[in-house]
Amino acid sequence: MNLTGWCLGILLAIVAQGSASAAGLKPAQRVLTWNVEGVPQRLTVLNVDGPVLPSKEPDTRIDLRSVIGPMVTTRFMHTWLGDSGGYVTEFMRVEYRGKYRFSLGRYLEETGQGGRVLAAMLKMPGVPSKERCPPSSEVKEQPSFTKGREQLFAAGCAHPKWLTLEPEAFSVLNWDDADNVLLAIQVFHPEGRRSSNQMERVGVWLKAPPEWSPWLEAARRGEGLFEDQRYDWVRRLSPLEIAAVRARVAKLKRTARRKFIAETVYRAQQAPLSAADLVDEFFPEPKDGGLDLDTQWAWSDRVLYLQHTPLCRKSAEVVFRGQWAPETEKAIVFNLTQCGGFYGQAPPKDCVEHAAPSSCIKPWVEAQQEQERSASQFSLVHDREGAAPAE
After folding, report:
1. How far apart are CA 56 and CA 83, in angstroms?
2. Quick one: three-class SS letters along the chain?
3. What is the pLDDT of residue 23?
4. Is a pLDDT exceeding 60 seen at residue 389?
5. CA-to-CA distance for 160 and 153, rounded, in angstroms?
6. Per residue in 60-100, pLDDT tens?
7. Which residues pair with 212 in a beta bridge?
């Protein structure tokens, strides 16, 4: 199947004030270009605003996962309505461009890394008889996935349906800039039913095949895509686009700069992270510590642009520094309450109308900081096995 020219829908919603759908704008497009065996490749990717829901007609969505050299990984999700309600089925597929082909199953056996995948699968929730399983460190040392799996069953650990790998369906989550890649490998869904056959994946660090090195380096330069980066990638302009925008913004006065960033980059081009980058560049913190009104408004806008990212709340904490005008203080505190991704208690929204909005919301922010420090001691990602293997 030739994917050239396809519009692949990345199913990631932009939840922001004045969203594209609310404004009646078409979904934003991002173009990914790279080379395979000297032949230029191109993908046009749609950023679809909103969740995928079953409809009366069958609906298939294609969600781009990763692009590394000749390997293009997509997730297919098919939804439909039947007599008994909604149905969904999803799976990953690796499409190859050019002559290169790769078998992850064979590679695991040849390189003796099968135990690392088994150890990761045993950490998945719901695996039965875990108390009979050997220690994770022992499972990792087993070179063969197939033989290691048989040994686990012989010991009464797990069950065949829980340790069934689909190794030819994988995406590249990330790379350690050395020899190791973090892969997400599809596994057989042991409790899959016709009404809900959702994709199950396991994440594990593995030594990368040596032929992948130039492709991984190219992806790091933007000529390809790691799955872990696609959220940011679809919300940023390309290097060529941002260069043109930067040149345009540099010629404008400060008030016009803020307006252009908000109306053109954030709303029309639907690139909120590029908009935040431009605020950082063109509205830096004054050396004398004094905040002019344009900078205050721009910094409030930046909080809006960073909604539903880990940086949103932190970017709003500038309201506790310097003297803010009443209208900008109210605006940035409102945007702070819309950040999302909070720990525990939601922000007190009545602080927006408080006589001193920043003072009102500061105790809540400090509580969030403390909970964040506590949470950082634990991994929130349950489907990834360890770190990159040591040399």
Report:
1. 11
2. CCCCCCEEEECCCCCCCCCCCCCCCCCEEEEEEEEECCEEEEEEEEECCCCCCCCCCCEEEEEEEEEECCEEEEEEEEEEEECCEEEEEEEEEEEECCCCCCCHHHHHHHHCCHHHHHHHHHCCCCCCCHHHCCCHHHHHCCCCHHHHHHHHHHCCCCCHHHCCEEEEEEEEEEECCCCEEEEEEEECCCCCECCEECCEEEEEEEECCHHHHHHHHHHHCCCCECHHHHHHHCCCCCHHHHHHHHHHHHCCCHHHHHHHHHHHHHHHCCCHHHHHHHHHHHCCCCCCCCCCHHHHHHHHHHHHHCCCCCHHHHHHHHHHCCCCCHHHHHHHHHHHHCCCCCCCCCCCHHHHHCCCHHHHHHHHHHHHHHHHHHHCCCCCCCCEECCCCCC
3. 43
4. no
5. 7
6. 778 889 999 999 999 888 777 777 667 777 889 999 999 99
7. none
Cα–Cα distances in Å, from 329 out to 115, 120, 296, 301, 326?
55, 47, 8, 12, 5
Looking at residues 308-337, what average pLDDT do you find?
A: 93
172 bridge partner residues: 183
* pLDDT of amino acid 2: 37
Question: What Å distances lie between residue 124 and 35, 118, 131, 169, 306, CA to CA?
Answer: 37, 10, 14, 18, 32
The structure's pTM equals 0.77
Residue with tokens 């990212």: 309
Partnered with residue 46 across adjacent β-strands are 9, 29
Rounded Cα gap, residues 76 and 90, in angstroms? 5
Q: How confident is the model at residue 22 (pLDDT cuts 50, 70, 90)?
A: very low
In this prediction, residue 54 carries a pLDDT of 46
Would you place residue 245 in the very low, low, confident or very high pLDDT band (cuts 50, 70, 90)? very high
Q: Is 140 exposed, middle or buried (0-12, 13-18, 19+ CB in 10 A)?
A: buried
Looking at residue 198, what is its pLDDT? 61
Find the length of the chain. 391
Decide: 110 and 145 in contact? Cβ < 8 Å: no
CB 300 within 8 A of CB 328: yes
pLDDT in tens, 49-58: 433 334 555 6
| pLDDT over 60 (residue 248) | yes
